[in-house]
Every structure is written in structure tokens, then in C-alpha cells.
């Protein structure tokens, strides 16, 4: 997978450098933002490539450009999300107006790169990018509104917000190879995004800082579970979420309650349920063991 990382990284550098419709200032910000995220890896682009290779009888070098395009879209969404949440320490948070413009440029470039590729089914790929990008944006809107306060509505929201992006990456690779998508790939790729989001929700509660969802009065699966319990700790959390009530939050007590009440176990159980479903669909897909191992790692 290191080779895929390097190929995607090289394609990103080339595409940013050769885009004739942007000036030096915008190009410089694109390069800088891309470099800040390089260490995170290119899992979305890799998903695109391995699904293309799984269903294609020959290799088209443009697949690395398409993978880079997907990573540009993902980075643009990350930037916009950070600007909305105002809780990141990346350089784009210091210049939100210019950074937003850069993120919009990335979105347009992503579609443009795929449309200008030499794949037979590039039109279908662009349609998939537009469909799942819009679904993800709608999920992000629901998340920002903080409306999803029960298990089912929350799971539907993260399916759109996060599941759509992993589905988009896998399905674009598949459709470029054979001109159609399969139910199996659509289902397990969507579940990967849900699994990753639940993991993030659990992790965010372990740090008592400005990214902590509870401090920000956000609703996630562990918090929803905690709020349904009936004890003094859950009452203090409910009071904290109530804008009309001022209450003191003891982080040590809250952290202990999240564990002892079963809130964390509940979220982990749902994550494992989606993992089980995803693995069942993955078993029905013909793919080399290395690619399957990479996909399985995203479900841990």
C-alpha cells in the first residue's frame, strides 16, 4: 500500500501544479493544505484504486489521477468541517475566508479531473461523485443542526455524512472498471464509513478538550445512551445540555459513567454489528487477499 500512497501523492502534486486556471496564491495554499494532511494517508484514494483493480482486466494509469481527485474532495470536506466546528489547529483555520475559497477550488477540481480522464465510464463516475458528495453534505447539515438525538436518526445521519464518502470512493473505482456498481460493494463500503465515525465519536469523548462532543453539547451514540439512563450523572448532563440551566461538569465522574453505564460498550457493540454486516458482503466479492486485508483494517 506504500506504493499506492506514493502514486497518489505524486498525482496530487502534478495535478495541483498543472492546473492552469488557478493563480500562484491559490496554488500555494492547495500545496500547503495537501502537505498538512499527507501523513494521515490516502485511504479513500486507495479504496478507489483497489476496487478498480479488482474488477478491471487491465490497468489504466489515469486511475491514480482519479484517486487523487477523490482525495482532493475529501480534503475539501475536512477543511470545511474544521472551519464549521472551529476546533482544529491546521493552518486553514487561521485564514477561514481564503481557506474556504481553496476548499471550493478542490471540489471543482475533483469533478474536472475525473471528467477529463480517458475512462470509458467517466460520466458515470462523475455522477457517483456528485450523488455521494451531496448525500455527505446533507448528513453534515443534519450533524451541524444537532437534530439527531436518537439511535436511528443518528445512524441515518452518519450513514449519509461518513458512509457516503467511503461508498463514493469504492464505487467510483468499480464503475470505472466495468460501468456498473454492485450491491455488495455499496453496502460494505457504506458500513466502513459508519464504523469509522462511531470510532471517532468514542475517541472524541476520551479527551476533555474543545473537540469533546459532550462539552460541545453534541449528540453521539454514547451520549444518547448516557442521556437515557436515570441517575445523578445523566441528570447533570441533561441540565448541561439545557440552555436554561447552569451546571458544573465533573469530567472524571462523566468519564467513569460513560464506561460504567455501558454507553461506550453500547457504541462498540453497534460498531461491531456493522463490521459483521460489512464482512458478510465483502466475502461475496472476488478480490485479492491484500486488498481485502486493507479493507478489513478500516473496520477495526
What structural keywords apply?
300 residues, mainly alpha, Farnesyl Diphosphate Synthase, 13 helices, transferase, metal-binding, Transcriptional regulator, ComQ
Q: Sketch the topology as an H/E string, one letter per element.
A: HHHHHHHHHHHHH
Mean pLDDT, nearest integer?
95
Q: What is the name of the CATH architecture of one domain?
A: Orthogonal Bundle
User: DSSP strand (E) fraction?
Assistant: under 5%
The percent of residues in helical segments reads: over 70%
Count of separate DSSP helical elements: 13
CATH homology group of one domain: Farnesyl Diphosphate Synthase
Query: Gyration radius, to the nearest Å?
Result: 20 Å
The termini sit apart by 18 Å
Total DSSP E strands: 0
For the record, the CATH class of one domain is Mainly Alpha
Largest sheet: none
CATH-defined topology of one domain: Farnesyl Diphosphate Synthase
Amino acid at each position: 500500500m506504500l506504493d499506492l500512497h506514493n502514486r497518489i501523492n505524486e498525482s496530487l502534486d502534478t495535478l495541483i501544479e498543472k492546473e492552469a486556471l488557478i493563480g500562484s496564491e491559490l496554488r500555494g495554499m492547495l500545496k500547503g493544505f495537501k502537505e498538512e494532511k499527507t501523513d494521515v494517508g490516502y485511504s479513500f484514494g486507495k479504496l478507489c484504486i483497489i476496487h478498480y483493480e479488482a474488477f478491471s482486466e487491465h490497468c489504466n494509469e489515469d486511475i491514480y489521477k482519479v484517486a487523487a481527485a477523490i482525495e482532493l474532495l475529501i480534503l475539501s470536506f475536512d477543511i470545511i468541517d474544521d472551519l464549521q466546528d472551529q476546533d482544529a489547529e491546521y493552518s486553514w483555520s487561521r485564514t477561514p475566508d481564503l481557506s474556504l475559497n481553496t476548499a471550493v477550488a478542490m471540489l471543482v477540481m475533483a469533478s474536472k479531473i475525473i471528467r477529463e480522464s480517458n475512462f470509458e465510464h467517466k460520466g458515470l463516475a462523475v455522477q457517483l461523485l456528485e450523488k455521494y458528495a451531496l448525500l455527505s453534505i446533507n448528513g453534515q447539515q443534519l450533524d451541524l443542526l444537532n437534530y439527531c438525538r436518537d439511535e436511528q436518526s443518528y445512524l441515518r445521519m452518519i450513514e449519509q455524512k461518513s458512509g457516503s464518502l467511503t461508498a463514493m470512493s469504492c464505487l467510483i473505482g468499480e464503475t470505472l472498471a466495468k460501468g456498473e456498481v454492485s450491491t455488495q460493494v455499496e453496502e460494505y463500503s457504506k458500513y466502513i464509513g459508519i464504523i469509522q465515525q462511531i470510532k471517532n465519536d468514542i475517541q472524541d469523548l476520551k479527551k476533555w478538550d474543545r473537540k469533546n462532543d459532550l462539552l460541545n453539547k453534541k449528540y453521539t451514540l454514547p451520549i444518547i445512551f448516557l442521556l437515557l439512563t436515570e441517575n445523578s450523572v445523566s441528570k447533570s448532563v441533561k441540565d448541561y445540555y439545557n440552555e436554561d440551566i447552569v451546571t458544573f461538569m465533573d469530567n472524571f465522574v462523566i468519564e467513569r459513567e460513560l464506561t460504567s453505564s455501558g454507553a461506550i460498550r453500547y457504541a462498540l457493540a453497534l460498531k461491531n454489528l456493522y463490521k459483521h454486516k460489512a464482512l458478510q458482503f465483502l466475502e461475496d466479492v472476488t478480490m485479492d487477499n491484500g486488498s481485502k486485508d486493507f479493507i478489513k483494517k478500516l473496520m477495526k
